TrEMBL record:
Pfam families: GST_C_2. This is GST C-terminal domain-containing protein. InterPro entries: Glutathione-S-Trfase_C-like, Glutathione-S-Trfase_C_sf, GST_Theta, Thioredoxin-like_sf. GO terms for cellular component: cytoplasm. PANTHER family: GH16740P-RELATED, PTHR43917. GO terms for biological process: glutathione metabolic process.
């Protein structure tokens, strides 16, 4: 299966993803998005990725399941690496994105049992640091969900941000 990667040559995370898939021999197609020409803010790209940022992988959750986690316990084999942490935190960030619109985080991950099991492995391998570091992001998702129900509700982001320090 070929992974579609939307990327910019001026974006460091894009370059990291490109080098990773090339070194790992993962079949992929690169689609160049010009940040300078603001193609990432154009309606075609926003339809694809409403966040308007690069890198972006189409069907990313499916790709993580079938391409990145198909052999071994972790992304680069049976040992955890920084690739697992970067990817797991990126998946966790869907909590905030989907608290404001679209399906919730649990619904998004519902059909991805391999992905969920890997997320649990990453968290438990890095316990207690992983859950502690993610506390603010998870709390923010809860507060954003309240705001979705009541647009007048104003979450206290300063207090939420401080949670991970305690
Ligand atoms: N956490 C994201 C960060 C992506 C990101 O910040 N991309 C920047 C370029 S490095 C971007 O697309 N900026 C465009 C914008 O914000 O309008 C990732 O690692 O993929």
């Amino acid at each position: 299966m070929t992974v579609d990667i939307y990327y910019s040559t001026l974006s460091s995370p894009s370059l990291a993803v490109r080098v990773f898939v090339e070194v790992a021999g993962i079949p992929h197609k690169l689609h160049s998005i010009s940040l300078g020409a603001e193609e990432n803010r154009g309606s075609d790209y926003l339809k694809l990725n409403p966040l308007g940022i690069v890198p972006y992988m189409k069907r990313a959750l499916k790709d993580i399941d079938s391409v990145f986690l198909h052999d071994g316990q972790f992304v680069a084999g049976d040992e955890i690496s920084v690739a697992d942490l970067l990817l797991a935190v990126e998946v966790e960030s869907l909590r905030a994105q989907d608290a404001t619109s679209g399906p919730g985080y649990d619904d998004l991950l519902a059909d991805h049992s391999r992905l969920r099991a890997w997320m649990e492995r990453v968290a438990s391998r890095c316990e207690p640091h992983y859950d502690r570091a993610l506390r603010s992001m998870r709390a923010m998702a809860v507060e954003l969900a309240k705001k979705r129900d009541d647009p007048a509700y104003e979450p206290d982001f300063v207090t939420i941000e401080g949670l991970s320090e305690s």
